[in-house]
UniProtKB/TrEMBL annotation:
Name recorded for this polypeptide: Nuclease SbcCD subunit C
A Pfam family recorded for this sequence: SMC_N
Domain RecF/RecN/SMC N-terminal: residue ranges: 59-647
Native organism: Mycolicibacterium parafortuitum (Mycobacterium parafortuitum)
Entry-linked Gene3D superfamilies: P-loop containing nucleotide triphosphate hydrolases
Similarity remark: Belongs to the SMC family. SbcC subfamily.
Quaternary structure annotation from Swiss-Prot or TrEMBL: Heterodimer of SbcC and SbcD.
Domain of life: Bacteria
Cited InterPro entries: P-loop_NTPase, RecF/RecN/SMC_N
Length: 803
């Protein structure tokens, strides 16, 4: 596998630049929405150091610690600031992880191992044996810049957070803090440090936490932050709109409970699609709408119904009756006088005409003569006066009758008022209708108007009261509703001022969201592809294969989905993985981003990454480290000797350093030579030690010979098995089954614990002599010489060279 398959080799276009390109290519986005997208990008970019860091590659050169964690007096770990693999090993409690924690604290200001353990670490971060002074120094080299140091120190009695940090380039003056390095954003995007705790917690937070972690690894917070910023702007801008909509809903509810026709019209207006017509709503609220004015005018007219008064009715009826009686009396009187006078005068005149002057035949006393003629003329005059009186009475009767008829027509019929229930109006109209049904006779008419118009007057009073009540009810019930409606108009008008802006921001957020989904997974795919290749190396002996890695959903529905298969059957990857597999997967996801070509960090630091890995995965892990080390400085802290053993056995080029802790928290870093060679050195030391009693030498030397030979044989055997592509677990089982030194030599040389070693032993004199001393007992090794120690050395080197 070439290194391009594991580490990034080309510059990755920034998310900001990609979004700008997508904006430029999109001809459909509204200009206002486009401007809001640009403003969001400017805002969130302003909160970061940008995704593009300094191109100068930076390596680690030293880590120096004093008085911190497990390190007392000053201890220094020298690192080679160049691509390559370095393993820093040491038992638990040796102080090796204190170097890693010091580096992480100096770079990031915290330690992932301390996460959620604040109270505990407040008490234990200073070294118990040597708490003062307390300081950290981390040396770096950067191409084109040279060497520089990041320091952190604490005064006596200071708390963990009460510290002073600084940066110094060469011999220049120290600058406070680390801001001038511009690493704040790069440390978020391309964090070069990964601890065992972080490996274990990557998947603890569930799909949403993994989503966030991957988004950060991909540098996609720009999109997420832009969405959040636009969402916040929507919330701010939408305040007026939300208020108007909420009040409109409450107003519709209140109006729906009213029987007022204006309330119903208001509900119809408020529910109109596309928004309520403000002018119509306002006219309705203020009563300036045509229909509302007509209803109010009609009700007010009803409160002023004109009908005859009781006095008018009584006077008219009395007048009519009197006129009728006068006419009747005048007619009767006129009729009686006229008949008598006509009869008498006619007879007398005839008699006078025939007989001349003579005595009155009726009374016998008067004479029908000239005087009589005069009197006759007077009678005629009186008769004419009676006729005039009769005619006058007839005229008065006609007028009285007209007045009575006019009273019945004075009360007009009432028209209904739209939307207003007025049951008394029907009673009134019925009374008016009855009053207008006039009889023919004058006396009957007088009685009719008295009977019916009194009813009309009462009905009119009831109708007026009803109209008045309806008018007041409308005003009393409608007034508060109208006030609320008018107030809502003001709120709605204010909201509409921001509707255009709100629509533009909403469109901008939708644009970012819609393009984020495919872009996230497009950006993720390159890392996912590298992760799958790394996983194939790390998954040795695992039945789980890694498939697609996708980011789905947004906000509270966001999740990372890792698909996979078990023995070819599709499944979700995470639920079926063991702890070791999860750690391996976390590494597979971490390494591609940490090795991004955009990152200024050309170093990767892993603290105890193999704790939960089985031997097969360690083999794959070493292969991955070897590839990464071609382009990056890889530093692995490990308390597990399995890593160093696999590196030696597979022949991977690596520098091995051992951290040793002595009494009083004295920590020393030294080269960790090959175990077999180290044991050979111990043999030379024993041989050269003249003060060592022979008896002790005789007891110690065989064991040392055996340890050296078996260590070399084991490394040779494992290396040959690895090169042959055989599973490590098989090699371990074979080695454990071979109990004797000769059997283990046979495994290393021939691959068979029962193979004959005669040829190999006889090929070189030192080989058989060395095996003899390995098996020496009870004083047989009492006289071991330097030459025999050299025989051991040559035999060990021969074994280590086997492939």
């Amino acid at each position: 596998m070439g290194n391009s398959e594991i580490t990034a080799t080309g510059q990755e276009q920034s998310v900001h630049d990609v979004v700008l390109r997508m904006l430029a290519d999109d001809q459909d986005i509204d200009a206002d929405a486009r401007n809001w997208v640009l403003e969001a990008l400017a805002e969130v970019e302003g909160n970061t150091d940008g995704t593009q860091a300094s191109p100068a590659p930076t390596y680690l050169s030293t880590i120096s610690v004093v008085g911190f964690r497990g390190i007392g007096r000053q201890a220094r770990l020298d690192l080679h600031p160049t691509p390559g693999l370095m393993v820093v090993s040491g038992r638990n409690g040796s102080g090796k992880s204190s170097f890693a924690e010091a580096l992480e604290l100096a770079l990031t200001g915290t330690s992932y191992r301390w996460h959620n353990k604040a109270a505990l670490w407040e008490e234990a971060w200073r070294n118990l044996h040597h708490p003062e002074p307390c300081a950290i120094r981390v040396g770096f080299t950067a191409e084109g810049v040279g060497t520089f140091t990041v320091g952190m120190e604490w005064k006596a009695g200071a708390e963990l957070t009460d510290r002073t940090s600084w940066t110094q380039t060469g011999s220049d003056q120290r600058l406070p803090g680390t801001a001038d390095l511009g690493w704040s954003r790069p440390l978020e995007l391309w964090r070069p440090i990964l601890s065992y705790e972080e490996l274990g917690r990557l998947f603890d937070g569930g799909p949403s936490a993994l989503y966030d972690a991957l988004s950060k690894l991909l540098g996609l917070e720009v999109l997420t932050d832009a969405e959040k910023w636009l969402g916040a702007q929507i919330k701010l801008t939408k305040t007026a709109r939300d208020r108007a909509d909420a009040e409109r809903k409450e107003l519709v509810k209140a109006l729906s409970g009213s029987d007022d026709d204006r309330a119903q019209r208001a509900v119809t207006l408020l529910r109109k699609r596309g928004g309520a017509p403000i002018d119509e709503v306002l006219a309705l609220a203020t009563g300036s709408d045509d229909e509302g004015q007509r209803v109010v005018a009609a009700l007010r007219a009803l409160t002023q119904i004109e009908v005859p008064s009781l006095d008018d009715v009584e006077t008219t009826a009395t007048r009519l009756r009197s006129a009728r009686e006068t006419v009747d009396n005048a007619a009767h009187t006129l009729a009686d006088n006229a008949a008598q006078r006509i009869d008498v005068l006619s007879a007398a005149l005839q008699l006078h005409e025939h007989a001349g002057d003579l005595e009155c035949p009726l009374c016998g006393e008067g004479r029908l003569d000239g005087e009589w003629a005069t009197r006759t003329r007077t009678a005629i005059a009186e008769t004419e006066e009676s006729l005039r009186e009769y005619r006058s009475a007839q005229g008065e009767l006609a007028q009285a009758r007209s007045a009575a008829v006019r009273l019945t027509t004075l009360a007009g019929m009432l028209a209904s008022v739209p939307g207003v229930d007025l049951p008394r109006m029907a009673d009134y109209n019925a009374a008016v209708d009855a009053a207008r049904a006039r009889p023919d006779g004058d006396t009957e008419l007088a009685a009719h108007i008295e009977a019916t118009l009194i009813v009309v007057i009462g009905a009119a009073e009831a109708a007026r009261a009803e109209a008045e009540q309806a008018l007041h009810a409308r005003e009393d019930e409608w007034a508060p509703l109208a006030a609320r409606l008018a107030a809502w108009v003001n709120v709605e008008q204010e909201a509409r001022k921001f509707d255009g802006t709100l629509n533009a921001i909403t469109a901008a957020k939708r644009w970012v969201t819609d393009r984020s989904k495919p872009f996230r997974n497009q950006r993720l795919e390159s890392i996912a592809a590298q992760a799958r290749k790394i996983w194939r190396l790390l998954r040795q002996e695992s039945n789980v294969d890694l498939g697609e890695i996708t980011l789905q959903g947004t906000a509270t529905h966001r999740k990372a989905v890792l698909s996979g298969s078990v023995d070819g059957e599709p499944t979700k990857a995470l639920p079926v993985m063991s702890q070791g597999e999860l750690h391996a997967l976390a590494l597979a996801l971490f390494l591609p981003r940490a090795t991004s070509a955009n990152s200024p960090f050309r170093f990767i630091v892993l603290d105890d990454p193999i704790q939960a890995m089985d031997p097969a995965k360690i083999d794959g892990f070493v292969q991955v480290l070897g590839e990464v080390a071609k382009t990056h400085q890889v530093i692995v802290f490990s308390h597990d000797d399995r890593l160093a053993s696999v590196i030696r056995e597979t022949g991977v080029d690596a520098r091995m350093v051992e951290v040793v802790r002595e009494t009083g928290s004295k920590v020393t870093a030294r080269d960790n030579v090959n175990p077999a060679r180290r044991t050979v050195s111990d043999v030379f030391a024993v041989v050269k030690d003249d003060g060592l009693p022979d008896e002790i030498r005789a007891r110690v030397v065989p064991g040392l010979f055996r340890m050296a030979v078996e260590a070399a044989a084991k490394q040779a055997f494992y290396a040959k098995q690895s090169l042959a592509g055989r599973p490590r677990i098989d090699a371990e089982q074979a080695w454990a089954s071979a109990k004797k030194t000769s059997s283990r030599l046979a495994l290393a040389i021939h691959g068979d614990p029962g193979a004959d070693l005669t040829g190999w032993l006889d090929a070189k004199r030192e080989r058989r002599n060395t095996l003899r001393l390995c098996n020496a007992v009870h004083g047989a090794a009492r006289g071991v010489s330097k030459d025999e120690a050299r025989d051991l050395e040559r035999t060990v080197e021969t074994l280590l060279a086997l492939r």
